Structure formats: structure tokens, C-alpha cells
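Subject: Sanity check before I submit

Could someone independently write out the C-alpha cells for this chain? I want to compare against mine line by line before I put it in a report. The sequence has 86 residues.
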Amino acid sequence: MSITSNIKSVLPKIESVKEFLKFVEECSQIVDKSLVGTLMSILTTMKFDGSRTIQEHVIEMANIGARVKSLAMAMDGNFLTQFITV
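---
Independent answer below. Compare away.
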């Protein structure tokens, strides 16, 4: 397989596939934590502004909650309901 030069320059020199997969897993966890933080920030600051229907607002918040949940962060339904009703 070939990897472009700009990507090769940031990858560490690793000899075994097992070490490389561990490196990729660690990087993935960092990205996931960052994404969860961003999504939680959006979720906790999102307010209904009347520019769309309440149904669309609730669906968007539920979708963000589902994305957070899919990134292996436990989110209770009551927690999400609290933000939707505020």
C-alpha cells in the first residue's frame, strides 16, 4: 500500500503492525474525546430560537445525543430530556 508523503511525515517509525494498531487506537481515542466535548458543548448551549419547528429542534438535539452515545459515553435519557425542555 502507498501512503502520501504528508501523512508519512507525521507517522512514527513503527516496525510491527501490532504497535501501529495501538498507535492508531490511541489517536482515535483522542479524537473521540475531542468530538464528545464539542458535541456536549453544542448540546448544553443549544436553545430553541423559533427559526424552525420545535419538532426539528428536538430531533436535532436527540441526534446529537445519539452521536455522543455512539462514541461510548453513557447518556441517560433524563439528561437529554432536561436539555430539551429547558
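---
OP: Matches mine. For the report I'm noting this point. The longest helix spans residues 17-45.
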